[in-house]
Amino acid sequence: MERTLSYTEAVCEATDQEMGRDPSVILFGLDVDDPKAILGTTKGLVDKYGPERVFGTPLSEDAMTGAAIGMALAGVRPIHVHIRMDFLMLAMNQLVNIAAKSRYMYADLVSVPLVVRSLIGKSWGQGAQHSQGLYSYFMHVPGLKVVAPTTPYDAKGCLIAAIRDDDPVMFVEHRILHYQKGPVPESAYTVEPGKARITAPGEDVTLVGISYMQVECLRAQRYLEDIGIQAEVIDPIWLSPLDIDTIVQSVRKTRRLCVVDNGWTSCGASAEIIAQVTERLQGEGDIRVKRMGFAPVTCPTTPNLEAEFYPNGRKIAATAFDLVKGDATGWFPEERDDLKDIEFKGPF
């Protein structure tokens, strides 16, 4: 019988198993030892491993990231938790100029086995400075790996792979995903970098959903299925290194590609995926492509504006339908009760 865990439980279990396996793994960050335990992802770990291995930090992202890099260079495997990705901007020099480049600059004599967990996405009205998905910034930088798992299975496997990796890994979690549930093996396992997953097969259009937008793409697939269109849905999982081959193979078949992101489309992950696909398939006939993501304005706070700002399953389905038909049709699906959004349950 399959064992079911939530995304939160999967992240916590991965951390627990790796801390139990390897005494060099430590966990720290703002409020990791708080009773709410970062949505429950660090629950019970300070009691089990003690305050020397699990501890809260000052609100000083730059300094604590520098400390984390120093620990990693000295042989520790830190997991540095940030409640919001937005505030990684305060640590960009540490991450981009030091963590990412140390192995290269010291001719492979050192490594930085650092995992940086950060949360992205809308929730209960967090607005301009607390809702941004900025992982494309880190995809741009050689020396950093970037992963954005969607399912509890991938959350556990990717986090274990990230902890065991000898290079820095940016581990991206969408808030709403923490309430997803799915099968997760009890034993430790890894989901290694560089392999995407086809989550729904199809012949008519390829949908690539990043992080939480994978959930919305699967909703769109169901809406399209109702009208006889078969969408192939792909979860990239690891954004750097990116498995472009799986996406290219799908688009070679469907000839239509829609990439849905949790960030702005300009210079984003969706733009990079589409650029690589079109480079690979140029000269092989007509291919239709579309990016979806944040509207080109600052992240809003109110639910009514959020509904316009963020892609959802019905908007994705309508966009994919137009790609298939080759024209703006005006079709928009009626909402199905079984495909409604998961409600976010409150702060950390």
TrEMBL record:
Annotated InterPro entries: THDP-binding (IPR029061), Transketo_C/PFOR_II (IPR009014), Transketolase-like_Pyr-bd (IPR005475), Transketolase_C (IPR033248)
GO MF annotations, alphabetized: oxidoreductase activity
Domain of life: Bacteria
Keyword Oxidoreductase: yes
Cofactor(s) required for function per UniProt: thiamine diphosphate
Keywords per UniProt: Oxidoreductase, Thiamine pyrophosphate
Protein name: Alpha-ketoacid dehydrogenase subunit beta
PANTHER family: PYRUVATE DEHYDROGENASE E1 COMPONENT BETA SUBUNIT, PYRUVATE DEHYDROGENASE E1 COMPONENT SUBUNIT BETA
Transketolase-like pyrimidine-binding domain residues: 5-180
Lineage of the species this protein comes from: Bacteria, Bacillati, Cyanobacteriota, Cyanophyceae, Desertifilales
Pfam family for this entry, one: Transket_pyr
DNA-binding among keywords: no
